[in-house]
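FAQ: What does the model actually see?

It sees only this:
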Amino acid sequence: MPSIASQALTDGGFGRRIAVDDGAAFVAAMEAAPERLPAALGEGHGLLVLTGLHAISDDPDLLVRLSRPFGKEVENYSLTTPRLNLVHTEIPQIFIVSNMPPMNFAPPERPDPPTTANGGLPLQFPHRRGWHTDQSFRRPPPDISLFYAVTPAPPGQGQTLYADGVAAYDTLPPALKARVENLQGLHVAPYRGYGEDSVLAGETPKPLDPRDGPQPQPVVRVHPETGKKALYLCEREQMDWVRGPFVGMEPGPHGDGARLLYEIMAHYTQPRFVYAHEWEAGDMVIYDNRSTIHTATWFDAEHHGRLMWRTTVWGNPGPLYEGEKRSWDAA
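And it is asked to produce this:
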């Protein structure tokens, strides 16, 4: 059986790395002992990097098989999204993230300025924008995502940044921690006219499908497996800036809710809590949506094609959601 001995990614314990020699054999071994990968993810505080999984590019079903140890259901996107150009034609559990046809998804803009004062990669909000956790506009929201590089962006471009919500919560100043303890964020599907940029531009919001939200979610979420508290919120596109971003606070980009969100996100994305992944072909990052956030970075999409695959796993969102009908089934 292949070893899954892991190495630390950061000094603070956020993230573990596993080097894989034989991808097909590794997947079979993880199926034989399905508790091993989730345990490694827990050791990494919700972040796990696997390298050398080139076999998945030739056999995408391996990605689905590797997803199953993390929950009861690997989402079938052909049943949950009307945008079938985003769904793998042969494996409907795979969501495509690419600037190439048929998705044609543009990368985020470069930060302004494009580097930090010391020439580094911007990490912290609001210099770095787009921080979110996957599909937070659903109730219950998903547990785990697996993100795989078929064709990554060139070196030094197209990184993905991940932030540790448990460490960020633990280190909140006491007054700020008291403010967020029982607060709810209002989450909505992106690109419907409810995001911060759209509201500032005066755009008319589009009618929402029931699967798009808005949905209230706790800003402080208790992890159902570890019992640890983590910050759980997004910014920019995935919060409802018309009625929120927080339930019961002054709404809109100029309200008290906006000022609080900026304060929380600036704390959450301090470099000490962030890991920046430089992608190589065959890499996979597994992240726990219940306790982390992430964001994409710019790459030169005019000259380079990038192809990434993602699966999403459901099954253990915690007692808060117990017995709820899934909001995305409403459509």
